[in-house]
Amino acid sequence: MKVQLLITCLGDALYGEVGIATARVLQAVGCEVEFPEGQTCCGQPPFNAGHWPEAQAIAAHTRRTFDPKIPIVTPSASCAAMIRHGYAQLDREPPLECYELTEFLLKHGFSGALRSPRRVAVHTGCHGRMINLGDTAERVVGSIKGVTVVVFGEPEQCCGFGGAFAATHRTVSAGIADAKLDQLVACEADEVVSTDLGCLMHLRGRAKFGERELLLRHVAELLAEAVT
């Protein structure tokens, strides 16, 4: 099966290893991965800020860049939600077939194993609700041999990032993140994985600031380890 990889802005600028891990996982399940080099931001930042003409221009560029006949897979529930639901508010074009990584894997099958047993907590970003992600990430992670999925308190709560919210409402954003980190530390997982790099960037920053010992990775990195 042929798929197109949407790496996301944070993946491109800061976390290239997540894009590589995503490609490896997709190849491991039998996909031929294409990477359209003209891709840019999905347009969510201007869309959320109310700058819809600018968001429309980005959406139009994305439609020109990606082949509508080939599924798009992205390591981001946030970007998947924007392409599937945000674009519908910006234009009247047919929807692009876009999947968050674990959503795609649950639909098409995944198997893997770790060399050593591990307790893993899974944080699904808020935008996962927009695409009905539910417990998809937990189910995929839980299918890995050697993984025990750990439940933590108040899993439905936001990490506090919210894009520009973290900059415009820093005190509130930091407090939300600290509350989330307290729950994650208390569950005593060996590591925490998330479906969104924005969540990880924010939580990693607050964890370092508060000197909390917590391993935070993108779910694609754990999945790639399980198929290596």
Strand content: 15-25%
Please identify, by name, the CATH architecture of the largest domain.
Answer: 3-Layer(aba) Sandwich
Q: What is the CATH topology assignment of the largest domain?
A: Rossmann fold
The percent of residues in helical segments reads: 40-55%
Give the SSE layout.
Layout: E1 2-5, H1 9-13, H2 16-28, E2 32-34, H3 44-48, H4 52-65, E3 72-74, H5 77-90, E4 98-100, H6 101-108, E5 113-123, H7 136-142, E6 145-150, H8 165-168, H9 170-186, E7 191-194, H10 197-209, E8 216-218, H11 219-227
Helix pairs in contact: 2-11, 6-7, 9-10
Describe this entry's structure for a reader.
This protein is an alpha/beta fold. The chain has two domains: 2-105, no CATH class; 112-227, 3-Layer(aba) Sandwich (Rossmann fold), CATH 3.40.50. The protein is 48% helix and 16% strand. It has helices at 9-13, 16-28, 44-48, 52-65, 77-90, 101-108, 136-142, 165-168, 170-186, 197-209, 219-227, and strands at residues 2-5, 32-34, 72-74, 98-100, 113-123, 145-150, 191-194, 216-218. Strands 2-1-3-4 form a four-stranded parallel β-sheet, with helices on both faces. It has a four-stranded parallel β-sheet with strand order 6-5-7-8, with helices on both faces. α5 (77-90) links the parallel β3 (72-74) and β4 (98-100). α2 crosses α11 (219-227), α6 packs across α7 and α9 (170-186) packs across α10 (197-209). The protein is globular and about 45 Å long. The two termini are 20 Å apart. 44% of the residues are buried. The mean pLDDT is 94.
